[in-house]
Amino acid sequence: MKNLQEATERICELKGSLLALDAVLPAVIQSLSRATRSRLMAAVDAHAEAARTVLLHSDISDVVLATFERDVACNRALIEKSTRPEPAGLPATVDALLQTTTCITTFSAGRVLTSASGFFYRHGDRLFLVSNRHVFADAGSAHHPDRIEIGVHTDPQDLTRYAVVSLPLHQAGLPLWREAADGAGAVDIAAMEIPAGSLPAGAALQAFEASHLDARDEQVSIGDALTIAGFPLGFHDTVYHLAVARSASIASAYGVRFQGQGCFLTDARTHRGSSGSPVVRRRLNDGASAPSWQLVGVHSTRMDMRTRDQTQDESLGLNCAWYADVLPALTAAG
Questions:
Q1: Most C-beta atoms within 10 A of its C-beta, which of 37, 125, 135, 233?
Q2: What InterPro entries does the entry give (predicted)?
Q3: Is 144 helix (H, G, I), strand (E, B) or coil?
Q4: Whether residues 100 and 76 fall in one domain
Q5: Sheet holding 126-131, edge to edge
Q6: Closest by alpha carbon to 221, among 267, 259, 253, 247?
C-alpha cells in the first residue's frame, strides 16, 4: 500500500513538473530571435530522431512511444508558429487619402480641450497642417489652446506603428498658424507649418499639394459625389490609426460663393470632431491607372436654420466647406 501511495504521489509530482514546463517553454521560445527559433526547430528535429531510434530499440510500452510522439509534435507546432512572419499591418494599397488625414487634439495647460481633424499639405519642401481656424483658436467659444497633438505613421508598410507629435501653437506670444481671409472677411481655414525636426524618424505620411486642387478639365457641379475623411467624435480605426470617411454631395452652386462667403455647401451626415477634414472628389478622367483625388474644400461646420422647430423640423443635414483654393497663397513663403 505504501509503494502504491508513493507511486501515486510521484505521478502527481511529474504532472506538476510537466505543467510547469508547459508554462516556461512558450516563454523561452518567444524570447528567442526569429533566426534562433529556426535553428532551434532544426535541432529539435535532429534530437527527436535520435531519441526515437533509442526508444524503438528499448523495452518500453506503446504508451510511452505515443506520448513521446505527441509531445514532439506539440513542441514543433509551438516553435513553427512562432517562426511564421508576423502580419505587417495593412497592405500598402491603403488609399492615400486616409494617410493625408490626422486627428488633432487641443490642449490648454495640459488639459484636453477638443478633438478635431486636419490634413497635411505640402508647398515646395515645406509641410503644413491644415484645419479650421476655429480649431486653433475661437474667441466666440472662449477656445484658446496652447498646443496640439497630431498622429503620424512611422512605417509605410506597418500602419500599426504610430507616433504622437506635440506642436506648440504660439511663440513669443504670437500664433504659429496662418489664417485665410477674403473680401467678405475671415475664412475658416488655417495652416501651420510643421518643422521637419518635429516629426519622428521614418515618418510616413501623404500630403496634398497644389496639383490636387486642379479638376483637370473635369466639370465640377452641384450633386457631384464627395468624400469627407476625418475623425467624427474622435472615432477612427484605433489599430491602424486611420480616419473614416463619410459620403457627401455638392449641395450648392459650386464655384459660387454661398451667401457671398468663400464656401459651398455639402450634403452629408457629420459630427463634432470632423472640423478641418479634407473634402475631396474623385477625378476619373485624368489618365491615371487609378482614380485620384481633387481637394475641393475644408469641412467646417454643420449648417441649419435658426427658425427650425426642434420638435417638428428635421435638421437640414447641410454643411459648410470652405474652398481649398486659398491654400497655395496661405502657405506661400512670407
A1: 135
A2: Peptidase_S1_PA
A3: coil
A4: no
A5: 162-168, 147-153, 101-108, 111-123, 126-131, 185-193, 177-182
A6: 253
Cell, residue 144: 484658446
Q: Is residue 91 part of a domain?
A: no
The answer to whether 308 and 283 have CB atoms below 8 angstroms apart is no
- Helix, strand, or coil (residue 282): strand
CATH number at residue 101: 2.40.10.120
Instruction: Tell whether 269 and 311 lie within a shared domain.
Output: yes
Type of residue at 230 = G
Taking CA 106 as the corner, what is the angle to CA 209 and CA 113, rounded to the nearest 5 degrees?
150
> Does residue 243 contact residue 98 with C-beta atoms inside 8 Å?
yes
DSSP state of 134: H
Domain that holds residue 107: 96-330
pLDDT band at 308 (very low <50, low <70, confident <90, very high): low
The full DSSP string for 33-68 is -HHHHHHHHHHHHHHHHHHHHHHHTS---HHHHHHH
Q: How far apart are CA 27 and CA 25, in angstroms?
A: 5
251-285 confidence digits (pLDDT tens): 999 999 998 899 999 998 888 899 999 999 998 76
Residue-wise pLDDT tens digits, 174-220: 999 999 888 777 899 999 999 988 999 888 899 999 999 998 889 99
What is the pLDDT, as a whole number, of residue 183? Answer: 75
**Separation of alpha carbons 199 and 203, rounded Å:** 6
Nearest 5°: phi and psi at 142? 55, 40
Of 83, 115, 148, the residue that ends a domain is 83
| Last residue within a domain, chosen from 56, 83, 110 | 83
Per the document, the length of the chain is: 334
- Residue among 64, 32, 68, 28 at smallest CA distance from 48: 68
For residue 85, the 8-state DSSP code is P
